[in-house]
Amino acid sequence: MGSRVGFVRRAAMAAAGALLFSLGGVAQAGDIGFGIGVSYVFGGGVAAGIKAFGDDEDAVAVGSVGLDYLFASSAFRPNIGMTYQGEGYFSGGDVGYNFSTEMVDFAAGAGWSDKDDAHALFAAEEPVLIP
Q1: pLDDT in the model for residue 27
Q2: Which residue of 38, 61, 96, 97 sits 20 to 30 Å from the alpha carbon of 69, by its own alpha carbon?
Q3: What is the mean pLDDT of residues 8-25?
């Protein structure tokens, strides 16, 4: 049991380090995106959760950190993964740790995301024709 917990801690630390490296550190904290979605945890059933993304742009693949609630086991499941963020939605896969079963598991999910709308706020200017 102790070796499994040690492995999970080492794996979680390595994954967190890799995620921070891929996110570019804290300097880009203003570009973090958020989402709410539903996941299917393989071997655990359906879960609902929240996620934070490494970027809030649309049409990009980003790293994600999240927390799911598994309905079947009434357990929380922190997770990290890779997500494609589209125009107002996300879909992706993640690896998480189920606190109830004390096991690492995999999931696929989708949901709503708050993409960056800065490019859509301003209409294109009409060209000025000089005769």
Answers
A1: 40
A2: 61
A3: 57
Q: How far apart are CA 113 and CA 103, in angstroms?
A: 28
Domain boundaries, the chain: 2-117
Question: Per-residue DSSP letters for 18-65?
Answer: HHHHHHT-GGGGGG-EEEEEEEEETTTEEEEEEEEES---SSEEEEEE
77 CB-near residues (< 8 Å, 6+ apart): 41, 44, 47, 49, 67, 68, 69, 70, 96, 97, 98, 99, 105, 107
Report whether pLDDT(25) > 50: no
Rounded to whole angstroms, the Cα distance separating 123 from 6 reads 55
Q: Which of 15-19, 49-53, 71-75, 80-84 has the lowest mean pLDDT?
A: 15-19
Residues in the chain: 131
